[in-house]
Amino acid sequence: MTSPHPSPGELVDLHFGESRGTRGSTVARHASECARCRAALADMEWLEGSLTSLPEEAPPPDGLDRVLARVAAAGPTRDRNARWVAPLAATVAGVGAGAGAIYATGSWLAGASPAAATPLLESVRAASGMGMAALAFFGIGSFVTLALAPALLMEAQARRRAVAGR
Q1: Model-wide pTM > 0.85
Q2: Were both Cys, which of 2, 5, 6, 106 would link to 10 (CB 3.0–4.6 Å)?
Q3: pLDDT per position in the chain (166 positions), as tens?
Q4: Contact (CB, 8 A) for 106 and 130
Q5: How far is CA 89 from CA 17, 38, 84, 96, in A?
Q6: In sequence order, what are the residues at sequence separation of 6 or more whose Cβ sits closer than 8 angstroms to the Cβ of residue 6?
Q7: Are 31 and 89 found together in one domain?
Q8: How far is CA 160 from each of CA 91, 129, 139, rounded to the nearest angstrom?
Q9: Is residue 130 in some structural domain?
Q10: What per-residue confidence (pLDDT) applies to 102?
Q11: In-domain check, residue 73
Q12: Is 71 within a domain?
């Protein structure tokens, strides 16, 4: 047995007599020499015989609805309350980092801004620096969000298709 095992699809094609060409004869030769592939083909024959021996009855009209209701009732096995912990932690960390960045940049800008040269109150000077830092922070954040939006939308669509395909 020197040839690699055929794929399950190739074995199904062989079982139903749909193997064609050189690859079909290679699969048939391999299956005749390989105990594992012969066992898979024997299982397919048994399954086909079992299914054809069943009476032909139409499924109940509400059968699909009952199956879908049972699947929906089973739901996910993980704890639903724990789903919000990781996003909340990431949000808190992001807000904290943003506030720290605004404060540090605002303090630096308060000393470097045109307001530093005028005899303004210290609180007004600090507020002007914080305002400029916040404006820069949210402006840059907006551009980053707009740059990532297409990728995030494509990822969300792929996840929806994957869930719908299950």
Answers
A1: no
A2: 6
A3: 456 889 888 998 988 888 888 888 899 999 999 999 999 999 999 988 888 887 778 778 888 888 888 888 876 666 666 677 788 888 889 888 888 877 777 777 666 655 555 555 566 666 666 777 777 878 888 888 888 888 888 888 888 888 887 5
A4: yes
A5: 58, 55, 9, 11
A6: 14, 26, 27, 30, 31, 37
A7: no
A8: 24, 44, 31
A9: yes
A10: 77
A11: no
A12: no
End-to-end CA distance of the chain: 37
Measure the CA–CA gap between 81 and 65, rounded to whole angstroms.
28
51 lies in a domain? yes
Q: What is the predicted pLDDT for the residue at 63?
A: 84
State which amino acid sits at residue 55. P
Structure tokens at 13: 């094609």
CB atoms within 10 A of CB 102: 21
| Residues 103 and 159 placed together within one structural domain of the fold | yes
Q: Is 20 helix (H, G, I), strand (E, B) or coil?
A: coil
Q: Are residues 98 and 44 in the same domain?
A: no
| Cα–Cα distance measured from residue 149 to residue 166, given in angstroms and rounded to the nearest whole number | 26
Domain count, the chain: 2
| Range(s) of the domain holding residue 124 | 85-165
